[in-house]
Amino acid sequence: KKRRRWGRGSGSGRGKQSGFGHQKSRSTPRAFEGGQTPLYKRLPKIGFFNSSQKSFQILNLSKIQEFITMGRLIPSPDKMITMRDLLYSGIVSQVN
Fold it and tell me: Which residues does 95 contact at the CB level (< 8 Å), separation at least 6?
């Protein structure tokens, strides 16, 4: 049996769409609403993202005293407690 040759004119019986029918769009974007203005464009913009925002951790004197009594934070009488001491003892998780 001879192989069929697709797409060789309408007279061949296998022309024009070559057995694939009418073409449709393969995929549409997620927010596509059939030509209507999408919802994310109809709603107003609200707020902004502050990239230079600093995050703070709450640290009470009672928590420092608790760590001193547990022995995890050892203050020296002639030096001040620094951020490095607080970080190493585990009171503060990260220093910006």
Answer: 83, 84, 87
Residues 6+ apart with CB under 8 A from 90: 67, 72
Instruction: Count the neighbouring beta carbons within 10 Å of the beta carbon of residue 60.
Output: 9
Q: Indicate the pLDDT class of residue 5, thresholds 50, 70 and 90.
A: confident
Structure tokens belonging to residue 37: 């203005």
Distance CA 74, CA 49 (A): 40
* pLDDT, tens digit (0-9, with 9 covering 90-100), for 18-45: 777 777 667 778 888 888 999 999 999 9
